[in-house]
Amino acid sequence: MRITPCQAALAAAITLNLLLLLCSRFAPGASPPPSSCHRRVPSSGGVPSSSGGVPPLSGGVTVILRDFPDGPDHDVAATARSFAALPGVTVLVASEVAPYPPVPLPAGVTVLSLRPEPHRPPPRPELAVRTRHVALVPDGARAVPGLLRRMRDALEGDKGDEVKVVAAPVGTSPPRCLALEVDVKAWTARYGHVGHESDHKSDHKADHKSDHKSDRSGDLCGALDGAPAVLLLRTRDLFSLPFPLTRPVVTSLSLQASLRGWRLLLLPDAFPLAPRPPPSPHALWKAQDALEKRRRTLMEQFGIKLEVLPDGGRRWHGCTKDTPRCFGTIHAQTPQYLLAGRWTPPCCLRALRATARHVVAQLEAAGVRYWLEGGSLLGAVRLGDIIPWDYDVDLGLYREDVPKCRWLAAVLSSGRPVEDPEGFFWEKAAEGEFYRVHFSRANRLHVDLWPFYARPGGVMTKDTWLGHRQDVEFPERFLVPLVPVAFAGVAAKAPNDPRAFLELKFGPGAVENPEYPNPGVRRLAQDV
Which residues of the chain have a pLDDT value below 50? Predict the structure, then answer.
């Protein structure tokens, strides 16, 4: 059969289209091709190297540059150039937007946009990584031939199953190797010195760790702090994390690793840090401010309100006197955080303690007869403090003593809220005949003040009942006399038989078997 020129041209066009379709199937973001449509990473066998004869990494390593300053004061181009010169290494620059002003990146270095845009597919940085291992490299680091290989070998050669990240310092000052425990329920990250880890670590895990420590040429850490480091891990592990490329990278990975029982192996070998001229005071302030903002954003994303530092210091990330509290309106006596399996944020507990201490001091100074009520009394008896899931403080007081306190008297006479000189906000509650003292005008964490009076027969009652299970009348003999108990850092007044008082309110065994405010919605047993 004769083939006409038109038929030949048509066949050629179809063949060309099929080849283009095959190549596009394996374009960036797809799996590696089985053909020459895509550049392969050279193997380690006999390929000349531009790095002093060091053979390329078998299987390659993808270097991701993520932690660099916004704006022009970065070293991305030089850092990328240094690592791109290593054989078997691919370099990606990951950022919400491309570095600006634009910088001349070496050939083959790709910029990955991490910011979702409505006219583009969602960012999928994991599709751009085709190697088994990935190294997260900080700004200003310089490559050392063979060091990425040693890091990879340390990771793959570890006999235990807890080392998932290998770190190498950048510069002459290594980062601090710390222990880390993340308590999700308490919204808290606790750091410690390695070798003095908290008692929550099991003996089995400690034995397991010591069995393999002698085989390691580095320090086993829960977190790194204080200096930059290159982090190498398996690609599958990095992208199994919900926040794989969130900044600050070292802090983000340390926190996520702790929650999964992963450890970081810190090697003694270091990457050089490129020398830079000393920054101006303004530039230094700008860099520190940007780092602090990133850290605050990270803690907000991770739901961490408090970091307890190795020296006992505290770094707070939650609500303050100038901001609203961390939770909204409460329904059915069950805050949203209880439904999520968490307890009261520590910043909110701190505000409640401060408010309780202030109110107690004001009532004491005015000679008002008051006492701890309900869950607040239960916390005092059990812990000497607020129960960790409570969201307010309750105090009872004699109704006839209300005018003795000048702030309550001012609210009573004016019918309007009053802000005292220390910023606490006193008001009559909208729900009934009782009073509230808020941490501030902005932050409505509060102490409720319940006016009681004696009816005939020596029984204490009040005018507003909200249907809470502890809302019951009780004999006045519990209040004569009142006794001091430790509560929130002060000695507060309490009924003279706290256990009997609590069992009258909550039922037998209330002290030994506490319960959430509304067990019909959420029970304590679900979270312990």
Answer: 20-52, 196-214
205 domain-assigned = no
Report the CATH number at residue 221.
3.90.550.10
Give the length of the chain: 528
Residues 6+ apart with CB under 8 A from 406: 366
196-243: pLDDT as tens digits: 444 444 334 444 444 444 456 799 999 999 999 999 999 999 999 999
Distance of CA 110 to the CA centre of its chain: 30
For residues 380 and 483, the answer to whether their CB atoms sit within 8 Å is no
| C-alpha–C-alpha distance, residues 273 and 146, integer Å | 17
CA distance linking residue 20 with residue 405, whole number of Å: 84
Tell me the CB-side half-sphere exposure of residue 297, using CA atoms within 13 A: 11
Cβ(447)–Cβ(437) below 8 Å: yes
Return the closest-CA partner of residue 67 out of 85, 86, 93.
93
Q: Is 226 left (phi over 0), alpha (psi -120 to 50) or beta?
A: left
The pTM of this model reads 0.84
Q: Say if residue 382 is in the same domain as residue 477.
A: yes
Do 457 and 371 belong to one domain?
yes
The sign of the dihedral angle between the CA atoms of 358, 360, 363, 366 is negative
b/e for 274-313, b at 16 or more Cβ within 10 A?
eeeeeeeeeeeebeeeeeeebbeebbeebbbbbbbebeee
Using DSSP, state whether 500 is helix, strand or coil: helix
Residue 401 DSSP class: G
